[in-house]
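Input sequence (189 aa), recorded before submission:
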Amino acid sequence: MDFDTVKALGILGAALMIATIVLTPISWLVGAILVLVSLYYLAQIYGERGIFNYAFYGLILAFVPALLVPFMFVAYFTPMMPMMPMHAYGNWPFTIWGFMGLWIFVVLVFFFLLILSSFFFYKSMDVLALKSNVDLFRIAGILTLIGAATLILFFIGSVLILASWVILAVAFYSLKRPPPPPEVTAVRV
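Predicted structure, token format:
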């Protein structure tokens, strides 16, 4: 794929991730996939598989919590449905405590996987920054990691993650075409 197309895919993907604020979460998913495709080709261009691999692991780890939360709630409530008559809420103390314990467990697992996902994204951006000499990639990775760690304080973490997506779009825009590899000439002895 042409370098300018790879660059455009990265810019478009980051822009769609930013547009998640006003659009649906599907725009984040499409944007993340476009960024991942762009990183795949950049990994081939720069000859560094870590650019794509770390981002891929991070994206997979970002989806695990999204699948884990609904599964945990269904797994918790499905066995109890026959035991829960609608008029017997007074017999529920064990269920409410179990539900609160489940909620705390799910939130802790969610944040752990989110921080781990952000760490892999940071590693990918760090390698890309080294290979492309565009330090904005490293800054986007650091902001994503700090934003994930501070997401418990919703406003601060969300703003940092949004800022990292904006910086990611600017970083893709700042990419320069890599120089061609030097020609190797055979020398006769």
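Checked by second reader. The mean pLDDT is 82.
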